[in-house]
Write a structure and sequence with these properties.
This protein has 314 residues and is α+β, with helices and mostly antiparallel strands. The chain has a domain of 176 residues: Thrombin, subunit H. It has a six-stranded antiparallel beta barrel with strand order 1-2-5-4-3-12. Strands 6-7-8-11-10-9 form a six-stranded antiparallel beta barrel. A hairpin with a 5-residue loop joins β7 and β8. The longest helix has 77 residues. It is elongated and about 115 Å long. The relative contact order is 0.10.
């Protein structure tokens, strides 16, 4: 008896399954059109239905996404661990190298102290400084300069060095009561006496209104290599010695090029240094902004001005 009932039930279900397979596509199309019509007729109902469906599906999606999120975190941690290993090895190597340099620096410091005691060396004056904000950028195709919000009232004078955290930015060329203009080292009129730090080769760092600087007047067959650091020499009495200007980036038949130590795009604050140097002339109109040590007609070529500025009209 039960067997007959089972057979009759299967016989009833089988035609329904066939009908569903036959008309499923048509029913889905009708359902889609119905939802579209309801959405056009009443957007509020559709939006509410979407919200309820999203609320119902959210816990499921949360559970499903957890393994994927855990796998992504595991991959990220593995990548970080690998990077930390490489960084740790690099830092250990740098630490060893710095320890060797520290030993050499301590030895040179002791030797320098002994030599100074023997030669009655007179150190230069300690610098005072004024920190100022850049308030205007006069950059253009012909003049590269900045304006800062510190002037003569703050103790700023013409010829002072303007530096940032990286190194030399330029030289103060004009001063007002509450402002000053700084001619950048990249300006075409900028020529700064300098030294290649390790070889002590004298040179002049010249601007050319581009992002790079050029080394000029190097001795013949000068051994200058990419990576050499260039600093101010102090010649001319305008800028103090030892300020970082940049690093040699390329040496070719067209010249020796320097990457500045300063990022020109991030200059916000400048420090104007006052070393109480006597090489800068005063602002009298009878004096050209060259140097007070020698008159202009007798000044040797090695005493070129650090930054050439506009001369008074004759």
């Amino acid at each position: 008896m039960s067997q007959r009932r089972q057979v009759s039930f299967n016989g009833m279900v089988r035609p329904l399954g066939g009908l569903w397979h036959r008309f499923a596509f048509v029913l889905l199309i009708l359902a889609a059109f119905t939802i579209m019509l309801v959405g056009k007729a009443d957007i509020v109902i559709v939006n509410r239905l979407k919200g309820e469906i999203a609320d119902a599906v959210t816990p499921i999606l949360d559970v499903v996404s957890r393994p994927t999120q855990a796998l992504a975190e595991l991959i990220d941690q593995t990548r970080q661990w690998r990077d930390l290993q490489a960084q740790n090895a690099r830092l250990r190597e740098e630490n060893k190298r710095l320890r060797r340099w520290q030993g050499a620096a301590l030895e040179l410091e002791a030797e320098n102290r002994a030599l100074r005691a023997l030669s009655t060396f007179r150190p230069g004056p300690r610098a005072s400084f004024v920190t100022s904000r850049v308030i205007a950028d006069g950059g253009g195709p012909f003049v590269h300069s900045l304006m800062i919000n510190a002037g003569s009232r703050a103790g700023v004078r013409k010829g002072m060095a303007a530096v940032a955290s990286g190194g030399l930015v330029g030289t103060v060329v004009s001063v007002g009561n509450r402002h000053a203009r700084v001619l950048l080292a990249t300006d075409l009129n900028s020529q700064i006496p300098a030294l290649v730090e390790l070889s002590r080769l004298p040179t002049v760092v010249a601007g050319n209104n581009s992002r790079r600087l050029e080394l000029r007047y190097l001795p013949q067959n000068a051994a200058v290599r990419p990576g050499d650091r260039v600093i101010t020499s102090g010649h001319g009495g305008m800028l103090p010695p030892g300020l970082a200007i940049g690093t040699v980036s390329s040496v070719n038949e067209r010249g020796v090029w320097l990457t500045p130590a300063v990022d020109w795009d991030t200059l916000e604050y400048l420090r104007v240094l006052d070393y109480k140097l006597d090489g800068v002339v005063n602002d009298g109109t009878e004096n050209d902004p060259v140097y007070a040590v020698h008159p202009p007609e007798t000044a040797p070529s090695s005493w070129l001005p650090d930054v050439l500025v506009d001369r008074p009209s004759q």
